[in-house]
Design a protein that fits this description.
By secondary structure, this protein is of the alpha+beta class. It contains 2 helices and 7 strands. It has a single domain, classed as SH3 type barrels. Strand 2 and strand 3 form a beta hairpin.
Amino acid sequence: MDKEFDKWNGLKKEIHSNDEYLPLYHERQIRWCRLGANVGFEQDGTGKGFSRPVLILKGFSRHVCLVIPLTTSAKKNMYHIPVGVVDSQRAAAVISQVRLIDTKRLYKLIGTLDKKIFDDIRKAVKNLI
């Protein structure tokens, strides 16, 4: 499968240069995020905008936060934690793909995750290390 690195690099330059966009966000939010075309088995964004939903795990500042990509893949293992229905599809948090992002990558708010599920995901992430 060929990845569209050149298209992603063009969009990434636009995202990076937009100094006016600085979204407000909160932990437990599920938002669309422009993750891009990544290397190997790293979670990619899909479609025209190279995006996928992510769970905001921890905020560090207005500029950076820790996120967990979500997937509709129905794998059953310790790295895929079910989160329920997200944008009309059953989803799971891929805790092995936790990553720090610039908040310029975030856009449309989808919703806020249930506190108990969020706490379970945080514990699972802590147990990874």
